[in-house]
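Can't attach files on this board, so I'm pasting raw text. These are the components:
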Amino acid sequence: MSSRYYFQLGSNFELSRSELASVYPEIGWQLVAPGILTGHFHQDFSPQTIIDQLGGTIKIFKHLQKLDITNEDQLRDQLTKYLSNLEAPKITIGLAEIGRDHLPKMEVSSLKKDLELAGKKVRYVAGSRHGLSAAVLLHKEVIELVLIQTQDGCYLAQTVAVQNIDHWSKKDRGKPYANRKKGLLPPKVARIMVNLAVGNADSAGQVLCDPFCGTGTILMEALEKSLTVIGADNDQAAVDGTTTNLNWLATEMNLPLNFMITNADATQFQPSQQPAFIVTEPFLGRPKPKADQIPNIFKGLSKLYLGCFKNWRKFLPNHAKVVMVFPRALASSSGLKKDYTLHKLIDNLSKLGYITQSEPILYHRPGAVIAREIYIFEYHFLNISEK
Ligand SMILES: C[S@@+](CC[C@H](N)C(=O)[O-])C[C@H]1O[C@@H](n2cnc3c(N)ncnc32)[C@H](O)[C@@H]1O
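---
Top answer:
C-alpha cells for the assembled complex are below.
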C-alpha cells in the first residue's frame, strides 16, 4: 500500500528538486503547486527520517482527501467535519494555504465556532498564510492542516515532518571554526551537493573527497551521512579548522571519526583511499571583483580547475561522481555586458572523461557578483593510453 505525500521545497527550488530526483529517482515526482512536489511512498515510509536526510525540503505533508468544494463555506464545512472526527476532545491547530493567494483567506474564527458547536475545544496557532514556521512546529504539538490548490482542485493534507532547523543552525552557527573569507557554503546546500553525488546509493562506508575543504562544510554533511571523508586544503588554518569542526560534529552526534584532512594543493593531492565521490566548492577568486578583472581571474581559475580534473583522473574509479561549484560572474551586478562563465572549460572536460549529468543549477545570494553554478559529472575511463 502506498500513500501520497507532498514535499514543500526550499527557496532554491531547482536545487531542492534536483536533490529529490537524485535521492528518489524511482518516484514519479509531479509539481502540483508553487514549490510543492508530490509522489507516492510506501506506507512504512518515515517522513521525519527522510526529511532529516535532505537539505532542500522544508516540510512533508500527508495527503488526506480531495475537497469537494465550490465555495469557501463548503471548504469550512469540510474542514469542520474532518477535525470534529478526530478523537482528541482538545486540539491545537494551525492552517496553511498553498497556491490559494488569489482566493479569500480561510476564516478561522468561524471554523473555531463551528468546531466548538460540534463539541471540540480548539486552540488556534496563528502563522503566516503559508503555514507555521518550522520552529513552532518542532516545539509545539500542533495539527497543521494544509490546503493545496492545484489545477485539478483543492487537496487537504497534514504536515507530518518538518526540517529540524535547530540542528541546521547549530551546524551553521555553532561549529567552532568559521571563516567568512572562505565564502562559507550554507550546510543545507552542502547537504544537497552530497546528496546529488551519492543519489540513492548506500553511502555508508563509501569515500567522499573535498580537495578544497575550507572549513569542512561539505565534509561535515558527508560524515553525518556515514561516509568516510577525506579533505585537503593548501591553507594550514583550513586543515586545522576542518579537523576541529569534524571532531566537534562527531562528538555532538556520536559519529565515528572516519576522516582524514591533509595540507595539499588540489592539483597534486592524492587521497589515501579511493573516493567514489568528489564534492567541492573550490577557490572561486575574490567575491566582488571589478568588471575588468574578471576575465583574468577566470583565466586563472580555469587553469586551476583543469589541473584538478587532470589530477583526479589518477585516482577516480570508473563512474565516480564529481559535484562541483563553478563561478559565474553575473552581468546584472558585475557591470559586464553579459554573464561570464567557464562553460568552454566545462565543455572540454568531456574529453577527459567527465560527462555532465544535467544542466547546471544556479545558486547565489541576492546582489552577488559571483554566482555559483553546481555541476554534476560522471567520470568515465577513456582509452588507457590517454590517462
Ligand atoms: C571557497 S573555499 C571552500 C569553502 C568551503 N566549501 C566551506 O564551506 O568552508 C576554497 C578553499 O580552497 C582553498 N584553496 C585555494 N587554492 C587551493 C589549491 N590550489 N589547493 C587546495 N586548496 C586551495 C582555500 O584555502 C579555501 O579554503
